[in-house]
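I am writing to request your help with a piece of structural work I have in hand. The matter concerns a single protein, recorded as an amino acid sequence and a row of backbone structure tokens. Could you please explain, in whatever detail you think fit, how the structure tokens follow from the sequence? Thank you for your consideration; the sequence and its tokens are set out here:
>
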Amino acid sequence: MAHEIVTRTYTASIQNQEQVKGDLDASGFAASKLWNVGRWICDRVWSEIGHIPSHAELTAYLKSHERYDDLHSQSSQRVLQELAEAFNSWYGNRRNGDTRANPPKYRKRGDEHPRSTVTFKQAGFKLDTKYNRVRLSKGSNLKEYWSDFILCEFHTRPDVDLSTVEDIQQVRAVWTGEVWELHFVCKIEIRISGTSGDKTAGIDLGINNFAALAYEGGHGELYPLNCLKQDDYYFSKRIARCDDADSAQSTRLNQKKSTRRTYYFHTLSKHIVQRCVEEDVETLAVGDLSGIREDEENGEPKDWGKHGNLDLHSWAFDRFTRMLGYKAEAEGITTKRVSERDTSRSCSSCSRKRDANRVERGLYVCDGCGAVANADVNGAENIRRKVSPSPPNRAVDRSNGWLAQPSTYLFDSQSGCFAPREQITL
């Protein structure tokens, strides 16, 4: 059985929240202030010479600045590294023609600094797994009397044992909006089952059906988004009744909604990977949706209609793809992002391209070969064929077969898993 080194992040709650909250608040505020100082430096340099300072240059500029000493030196370096990465990302988007891309903003709300995430690298923390405690180093400006560290007592999930992890690279203190929590970033060795076969599958992500799968050999599956849409409707109504959008009740509702979405994405990605193992899939092609919000012709934002635009902006396809990727990796399955260009308007049976073939949201009818298909499964099959090229087989009539009648899996909120339902007939 093969082994592989991967990165995992484990979340832990802080048990002595009241005792450490003040120190963590001070560190979070300090990280925001340092970000803002670096942001001002970047703006000045960019305005005067058209250059974006690198991480190393920002560190050299600010190493003697008072705000730099508010945090442990490695924590300050990480704040400036994130700022440099954000500026380079903005500049890259502008260079590629995205006129709507904006540079990173200052971290202020009125006159208040929000609590930023504080990253402690290996020299900035000391872990005691016997008593589930971690010491986080303060900056020299925040040390009071004898205390030069923040001692956090933490609790992880029952299935996480940090005493067995040899390489914990970072500890992040993250403000959730109500409390602080810890994220342990670890390098761990996993066993790859080696059960994957030699087949391919394609996955098309969408708004109504969050995922559509097409497997090599002829089988399609749909995963409708009904449960998340019901959640959105339910929580929107509850939040609208709150007196203040920033109230504690509204914050709790938003957090609960976010938790449910996260659970859904984890459960769905785990289920899809397990289905790929059962179907002997070696390579899973995932549609790359990075340009989904822009029109291919002129780069302008697409208009998906009132409800479609709202759905699109809450679409967590990048997050889901990352979850899918590392879960597939653990099973020895390779994921590849491929362009979705023309996959929705091309016939997977004869390759004819025509927008009018998609006669309505869920129905694709080819006017060339007469094939009838579920539109999302047709797109998934076209995505699959991009990693497993094969000439279309016009002799095989797949109309009203697996392309048109995929299996449908619905999320059962009571059991917390996906269960098959009756086939969709077009």
